[in-house]
Amino acid sequence: MTIKIVTDSSLTIAPELISALDITVVPLSVMVAGVVYADTDLKAPGYFLSLMKEHKELPKTSQPPVGLFAETYERLIAEGADQIVSIHLTDSLSGTIEAARQGAQLAGLSDQVTVIDSYFTDQCQTFQVTAAARLAQEGASLDAIVAEIAKVREHSELFIGVSTLENLVKGGRIGRVTGLLSSLLNIRVVMEMKDKTLTPVVKGRGAKTFNKWLDGFISEKIEGQSIVEIGISYCGTADIAQGFKERLALHTQAPITVLETTSVVQTHTGENAFAIMVHYA
Questions:
Q1: 229, 254 in Cβ contact below 8 A?
Q2: 15, 64, 95, 187: most buried, per Cβ within 10 A?
């Protein structure tokens, strides 16, 4: 049985992995100053952030059209796929999951397309997508792939640090972040994404907020743990992410991937944000 893996462009992934693992990425769109871009066309380092900073109005993100999902599924089946596993950013942040389901229905392929909520985004989504793609290339069954995705999801954690809440407020995501006052726009906040919900774990002022949190994170989450991989994503310069990588590397032998996050994520996190994601064994 030939199984193909589909995802969306909210995940942060090294481009070479998309090709090597034969992953199909359906792009979300971002509108900046009235101009609509495919998220996949905004990957040049620093390009989207500079574009966003040029305009006062926050960019607007949109899920892929239902028709685009239908066309993607139809093409993959026509090219020889027997089944498709479509893994997407959580439905608490986007309507992409529902668009994928409707796309499968529109194409008349609901029996051949398994749509899965990753419960995450960014590199936590990538952990699931790459695990599924490797199994698909090895000829694993649909049940085995779905079970592995669930296992990776259950053994993953995502923490995000933002230097301003302004983008979350403007983008309407602040209502999904419990326990924060929208008037405190310039505090540093670290949040955990758990059960599809962003919950603050640390808040304060100044860079020391992030550094102090990382000290506790290392002692509680990294030291002595069996870890498959770590992902660090950033918006802005890579300095803070590289610094985190160096500190984490002192406490684990697991591979650590540092990448600039996507335009979809940057729209809502703002500049000088980061995320640390861990896939435990």
A1: yes
A2: 64
270: left (phi over 0), alpha (psi -120 to 50) or beta: left
End-to-end CA gap in the chain: 28
**Cα(11)–Cα(122) distance, rounded to whole angstroms?**
4
* Count of all residues that appear for the chain in the document: 281
**Residue 37 CB: number of other CB atoms within 10 A?**
18
Tell me which residue of 96, 104, 102 sits closest to 72, measured CA to CA. Answer: 104
Rounded Cα distance, 29 and 60, in Å: 8
In b/e form, how buried is each residue of 237-259, taking b as 16+ CB within 10 angstroms?
A: ebebbeebbeebeeebebebbbb
Query: CB–CB of 273/214 below 8 Å?
Result: no
Residues 131-165 pLDDT 10s: 999 999 999 999 999 999 999 999 999 999 988 66
